[in-house]
Design brief:
By secondary structure, the protein is mainly beta. It has helices spanning 4-11, 128-133, 252-259; strands at residues 17-21, 27-32, 36-41, 46-52, 80-81, 105-112, 118-124, 138-146, 150-158, 164-166, 168-170, 173-175, 182-185, 191-194, 200-203, 208-209, 214-219, 225-229, 234-241, 245-250, 271-278, 284-286, 291-302. Helix content is 7%, strand content 43%.
Amino acid sequence: MITAQQLNQQFGIGGQLGFRADPGGLVIAEINNAHATASLCLQGAHLMAWQPKSQPLPVVWLSRDARLVPGKSIRGGVPVCWPWFGAHVSEPAFPAHGFARTVLWRVLESGSEPDGATRLTLRLAESDNTRTQWPHDSRLELTVIAGKTLRMELATENTGVTDFTITEALHTYFRVGDIGAVQVGGLAGCDYWNKVGGSTLGKQNGTIRFTGETDRVYVNTAAECTIEDDILKRRIHIAKSGSRSTVVWTPWTEKANRMGDLGQPDGWREMVCVESANALENAVKVAAGSRHTLVVEYRAEPL
């Protein structure tokens, strides 16, 4: 395994991008440029934080009880769900949301954008374990560009001779003032599958407000979404392409208490997930020799 020191020599950008080893042995990329700070764990290509320097608080939320443990997903940030979203359709023993968020990724390249943002590209490192769960010839890369905005590009390439189908998500946790005082816009009129207490089909009426556990998969929508936050006095924009599903999730009290790593006792109130995805009927067929890319860009502005 390549060390943080070797990564700094090969990919570090003085004063802007560096790598360090976490006490548990995981390697973290740290970005600090003229526009923003960000951090990313090489396990899972897991972006843990992003805070534009125009914002007094992070835009991407990380639980204060988040644990960095080899082989385990990190609570908060932007987990990469791939090559399936949710439970595997036929193998209940396989991990929920796929294996991409818990395995090692390799750094491919780094650089500075003309506007001063920092770019980092990683590729999932295949192993016997991943090939057992996903026996297809493929390549998965994530490019993160952190600056005034945060852009993430998740690219799936079919390097084989037969087609395959994926579901996927960038499972982004956003920092909010209080879940009861935010609303999510952009999905009015959209159909959604309500996953709380089963799976029922509904249609969104107006903006989304939160009064209890919410777990909805909005389908057949490429719409830009916004998070309006009256407490933090900011609006977060979520623009995407290559994505036909949007997932909106908050666990609320009972489920958060069962999960135990959301920042007890009430850390869950300071986050909401709005995920750019391809799920359920929006599964993506990737033809042999072709490439599919899910792109999302976040920006924050004052209300």
